[in-house]
Each structure stands twice: as structure tokens, then as C-alpha cells.
């Protein structure tokens, strides 16, 4: 429940306009904030006041950078922070849903699919957090939010950022029942500490009672150190996984990745891969999971290549008005089906008709043909085709370019290879035919300055974004235009149907009038800028930098930063599995330094400072 702001509450923190209170805890007050692009965030104003200690600031910045790198599998990403000002804050993705504690208080213990989704989703989140080198340190029911697309773990990394004392008291405030024995005794903590808290949290969800709860903190700590908990309400295999997780000895606990592998029915070999975390996110989502654990005919647990996948029901004659009920084929029957289908275990969706409700309209054919997703096609065939917009220098490729090259071409190749494709074909698409190319199967995914906001009604699932663009203007570097005010009275090349109108409106709002000069297209505007027929050429920053990069003299992206456009990857409608994997690949693209290298390679000759941070992701739908 969002409460109104109080008289002493701030109205603004950094770029976020605050509109209400989400809650308050030991670390700070959490507000609902909105950034200039309209994106909502949970903005935590920290109680801690940081000093001018350079080493402390460096440590905070290092920890925060790590938290920002966490892949958003079942988590709420850190998107912005200021730990050095007078009002230190950390902003995360806003998750609209109750906490696990609120849900249990309201509806009682969880069981069945709800409990399974909770366990898998939170294990997926912890795996992503730990793989980024982060220890949560405060995993508890209050930090698990139940969103419509599954559980999300929040506040990861923040406890470590704030906690510099290493004392029991600082870590025990508010959450002693979810501390691990090593925290109580003052020993070193690690990912295994989060695993213990995960086990205690799942036990709480299944029973409605804190696993180590007691009437005093001293009694709670004694139970953590010396008593086992009753796990009989938990079903197998979850009971065994939780029992191992709350072992008193850290070395006896599984890793978060091993927990996830066990819950999904995979062998516990190595850590959970991107594919496994993608599967975990799907299982945790009420709309796409849970899938049953399927074993092959030899009763050996399936690996990544032979994991269960869904096969669409065969075509049927249009039935009379009916109600369709979905049934999952039992694992034993799936194993029998494996004999017919070359040893591959499958789960079949059966449609049973009864005459009361009209059938739903058949969905559009999947682009991946015989494959359940683009991700599956990449892993099975090793081949993918990406669509990329042409005619933008440095961004896409022009007609006849061989081999095709450009920022988005290389981003597309990177993503396709991260999905498992070794052979990647690039085809040119336009803004007018890219949806048709995707739905017809001509391409598997589209990477083509795909502005999500402008294309959100297309029959496409969007993944990413892979770059956060801003509307801006390009000027000659030797001109006297150094700020927005310097554009007053200058000639601005405008093109109908482009962001030039937004730039003009923004300038007018600043009291800055310009002289519009009509151009036919972006190339025409660049020609007029080069010959000094206009003083500025509007567009999004990365497109402008592409035009500037190829010129023998320097041109500068002014830095207006007006609005934003999230350039996202287009996928077949409903391909959530591939969408999640693409989002993870984008994080890796930036985290590995590859994005920085590509931005320098294709735009390094322009006077331009691109946004090199990992873009805030949009949900897969």
C-alpha cells in the first residue's frame, strides 16, 4: 500500500520525483519515484550519512557496481544510486506486489504450485545474485516480493554496501530469525549464508511460522545455533533441499545454483547456466509454469539439451462452442512418448472440450516452426538469422555492404552467439517490414534501433533494451554552439515524422526558438549540416554519432539528453524463454566490456559520450 508523502518527506531524489511512501525499515525509507521517462522505481533514502572517507566511497561504489551487474532473473535490479551526497539513496525496479510476509499474514501458508514457484523463483534469483559476486546478507520474507510474473528478490547487495562494522548487532536488527549460525558466531559470511536464509524463508512460507522464531532474540539465536527445524509440512524433493540448506555447517549446504538444478530435475554438475536460470524464471511465472520434472526412459535426470519442452496439440476441426481445459501428461507417459520421438522426453498439452464456452482464437504461428522457442532453435541447430536496419552508418549496414557491419549488427551477432548459435546470418530489414519478416520466419530476431515505446503495439515480444538512447542534436565541433541556449535563432534541419518535433517542443519550453529547415531524410540533413546550410541536425544520439563518425572533420552530439528511447530486440510474440536469455546476454554484453568496445569502434570519431551503463530492462511479456 502506497501512503502519501509526509510533511518532512523529500519531493525529489536525484532524477526521481517522489509520489508516495512504500515503507520504512532499519536501513531507510522507501519511496515510489518516477524518472523523466516515466519509469517507476522504488527509491530508498538511506538513514546512513556517508563521510568524506575516500576509501569508504570507493568501497561503496565497487559494491554498487557489482549489484548493478546482477542479471534480472527473478530480481529487482538496482538502476541508480547516489551514495556520496547529503541524501544518499539507492533506486531499484519497482515491483508491484505484496511481500512474502504480507501474503502469509493475509492468506496463510503456501503449498502446491505456489510453494514450488516461490522456491524455484527465489533460488533462481539467488543464483543470479551470487554469480555476480554479491552476497545478499538480508534474505528474508520481507525482501521477497510476489509480482504477477512470479517472486522477485529485492535489496540484494545493499546490506553489504551499508554494513561496514561486521558486528552481530548491525546484522541482526529486524531479521535475527533468518540469520545463519556463522552470522551469530561472528564468523565469515558468504553465499552459503544466503542459502541458510533461503531455507529458513521457504520453511516459513510452508508453515506460516518463523523457523527459528522465539520470544526473545537470545532464544532465537540459541535455536539457530543448536536446534533443528520441523520440515514435515514440506513435500519432497523440496523438503530435502531445504533440510540441506539449513545445515549448521556452511560446507554442508548446497550452492544456490545446486538448489536450482535439484528443484528443476537437472544433474548437480557445476553451476546453473543461463539456460537453467531462464527455465527457473519460466517455472516461477504463473503464466508459464510450473513445468513438471520429467525424466528420460533410463530414469536419469535430464540435462540442458534434453530438458522437457512443450509440443503444441495437433490441429483439430473447429469445435462447437466449448471450454478448453489444459492437462499435463504425467512423467511416466512422457517417458513412453520419448520412445516414439527418438528418446527425447516431452510434455504434451492435451485440449479437452466441453460445450459451454466459445474457444479462444488460435494464436499466430510461431516463428520457430518445430522449435518451442528461438533459444531452442539456436541450441539445436546452431543457426540463427538476425534482421538489422540498413542505411544508418555505423549503426546498421547499407545496401551492398559485405560483410555487414555496424553497432547493431555486432550486438545482434553477440546475442545470437550467447543464445547458442555458431552460424549467424544477417539480413536487412526496414521499419516497414521488420514485423512481417519476424512473423513470417524470414528472421529469428530483429536488432534494428527498435524503439520499444513506439512499437509496443506490434505483435512482438521485446527483450532488452540493448541501448538507452536520448534525443539530441548534432553540431559542428568548431561551431559556437556549446549548450541548448546557443541554439536560439539557429537553423535546425527537421524531417516530418521524426523526433525533431520533440526537440523543438523541448527547446520552446526552455524559451529557445529555432529556425526550422525541412530536410527529406537523415542523409539530406547531414549533407546540409556539412555544407553549413543548417546549424544543427536532430535525431537520437547513437544515430547522430554514426553519421558523425564517418566524417573527416569532427562533429559533436550536443548533449541535450531529451527523453529516451529504449532500443530493444524483437522476438516472436510470446517467446518469453528467449526474451529472458536475451536480457541476460545484454547484461553480459555490457559487463564484459564488449559494448564499450563496440561503441568506441563505431562512434569513436564523433565527439560523443554514449550511455555505457546497463540499460534498465523491460519485463518479458
From TrEMBL:
Domain Protein kinase: 16-269
UniProt signal peptide: none
Superkingdom, taxonomy of origin: Bacteria
SUPFAM superfamilies with a match to the protein in the record: Periplasmic binding protein-like II, Protein kinase-like (PK-like)
Pfam annotation, one family: SBP_bac_3
GO molecular function terms attached to this record: ATP binding; protein serine/threonine kinase activity
Sorted UniProt keywords: ATP-binding, Kinase, Nucleotide-binding, Signal, Transferase
InterPro entries on file: Kinase-like_dom_sf (IPR011009), Prot_kinase_dom (IPR000719), SBP_3_CS (IPR018313), Ser/Thr_kinase_AS (IPR008271), Solute-binding_3/MltF_N (IPR001638)
Keyword Cytoplasm carried by entry: no
Keyword set includes ATP-binding: yes
Family: Belongs to the bacterial solute-binding protein 3 family.
Protein name (record): Transporter substrate-binding domain-containing protein
Organism of provenance: Herbidospora solisilvae
Source taxonomy: Bacteria, Bacillati, Actinomycetota, Actinomycetes, Streptosporangiales
Amino acid at each position: 500500500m502506497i501512503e502519501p508523502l509526509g510533511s518532512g518527506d523529500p519531493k525529489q531524489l536525484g532524477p526521481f520525483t517522489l509520489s508516495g511512501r512504500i515503507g520504512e525499515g532499519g536501513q531507510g525509507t522507501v519511496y515510489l519515484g518516477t524518472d523523466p521517462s516515466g519509469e517507476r522505481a522504488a527509491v530508498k533514502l538511506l538513514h546512513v550519512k556517508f563521510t568524506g572517507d575516500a576509501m569508504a566511497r570507493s568501497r561503496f561504489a565497487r559494491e554498487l557496481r557489482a549489484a548493478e551487474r546482477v542479471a534480472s532473473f527473478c530480481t529487482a535490479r538496482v538502476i541508480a544510486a547516489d551514495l556520496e551526497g547529503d541524501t544518499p539513496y539507492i533506486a531499484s525496479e519497482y515491483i508491484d506486489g505484496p511481500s512474502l510476509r504480507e501474503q502469509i499474514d493475509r492468506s496463510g501458508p503456501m503449498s502446491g504450485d505456489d510453494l514450488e514457484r516461490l522456491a524455484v523463483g527465489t533460488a533462481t534469483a539467488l543464483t543470479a545474485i551470487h554469480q555476480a559476486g554479491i552476497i545478499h546478507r538480508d534474505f528474508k520474507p520481507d525482501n521477497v516480493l510476489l509480482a504477477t510474473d512470479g517472486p522477485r528478490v529485492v535489496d540484494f547487495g545493499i546490506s553489504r554496501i551499508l554494513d561496514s562494522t561486521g558486528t552481530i548487532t548491525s546484522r541482526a536488527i529486524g531479521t535475527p530469525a533468518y540469520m545463519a549460525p556463522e552470522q551469530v558466531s561472528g564468523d565469515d559470511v558468504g553465499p552459503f549464508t544466503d542459502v541458510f536464509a533461503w531455507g529458513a524463508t521457504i520453511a516459513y512460507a510452508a508453515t506460516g511460522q518463523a523457523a527459528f522464531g522465539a520470544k526473545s532474540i537470545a532464544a532465537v539465536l540459541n535455536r539457530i545455533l543448536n536446534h533443528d527445524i520441523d520440515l514435515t509440512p514440506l513435500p519432497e524433493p523440496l523438503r530435502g533441499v531445504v533440510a540441506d540448506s539449513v545445515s549448521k555447517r556452511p560446507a554442508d549446504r548446497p550452492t544456490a545454483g545446486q538448489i536450482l538444478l535439484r528443484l528443476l530435475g537437472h544433474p548437480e554438475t557445476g553451476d546453473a547456466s543461463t539456460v537453467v536460470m531462464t527455465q527457473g524464471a519460466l517455472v516461477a511465472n504463473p503464466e508459464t509454469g510450473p513445468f513438471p520434472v520429467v525424466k528420460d526412459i533410463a530414469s536419469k535426470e535430464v540435462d540442458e539439451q534434453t530438458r522437457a519442452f512443450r509440443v503444441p496439440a495437433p490441429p483439430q476441426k473447429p469445435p462447437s462452442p466449448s471450454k478448453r481445459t489444459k492437462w499435463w501428461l504425467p512423467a511416466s507417459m512422457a517417458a513412453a512418448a520419448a520412445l516414439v520421438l527418438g528418446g527425447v522426453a516431452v510434455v504434451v498439452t492435451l485440449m479437452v472440450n466441453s460445450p459451454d464456452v466459445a474457444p479462444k482464437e488460435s494464436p499466430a504461428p510461431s516463428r520457430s516452426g518445430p522449435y518451442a522457442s528461438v533459444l531452442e532453435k539456436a541450441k539445436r541447430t546452431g543457426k540463427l538469422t538476425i534482421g538489422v536496419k540498413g542505411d544508418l552508418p555505423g549503426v546498421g549496414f547499407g545496401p551492398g555492404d559485405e560483410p555487414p557491419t555496424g553497432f547493431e549488427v555486432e550486438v545482434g551477432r553477440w546475442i545470437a552467439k550467447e543464445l547458442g548459435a555458431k552460424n549467424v546470418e544477417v539480413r536487412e530489414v526496414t521499419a516497414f517490414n521488420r514485423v512481417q519478416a519476424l512473423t513470417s520466419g524470414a528472421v529469428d530476431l530483429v536488432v534494428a534501433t527498435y524503439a520499444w515505446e513506439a512499437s509496443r503495439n506490434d505483435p512482438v515480444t521485446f527483450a532488452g533494451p540493448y541501448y538507452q538512447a536520448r534525443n539530441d542534436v548534432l553540431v559542428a565541433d568548431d561551431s559556437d554552439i556549446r549548450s541548448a541556449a546557443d541554439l536560439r535563432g539557429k537553423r535546425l534541419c527537421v524531417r516530418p515524422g521524426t523526433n525533431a518535433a520533440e526537440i523543438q517542443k523541448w527547446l520552446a519550453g526552455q524559451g529557445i526558438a529555432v529556425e526550422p529547415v525541412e530536410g527529406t531524410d537523415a542523409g539530406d540533413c547531414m549533407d546540409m549540416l556539412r555544407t553549413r546550410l543548417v546549424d544543427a541536425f536532430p535525431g537520437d544520439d547513437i544515430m547522430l554519432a554514426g553519421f558523425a563518425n564517418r566524417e573527416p572533420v569532427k562533429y559533436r552530439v550536443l548533449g541535450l539528453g531529451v527523453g529516451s528511447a529504449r532500443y530493444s530486440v524483437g522476438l516472436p510474440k510470446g517467446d518469453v524463454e528467449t526474451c529472458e536469455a536475451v536480457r541476460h546476454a545484454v547484461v553480459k554484453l555490457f559487463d564484459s566490456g564488449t559494448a564499450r568496445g563496440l561503441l568506441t569502434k563505431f562512434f569513436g570519431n564523433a565527439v560523443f559520450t554514449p550511455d555505457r551503463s546497463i540499460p534498465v530492462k523491460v519485463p518479458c511479456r
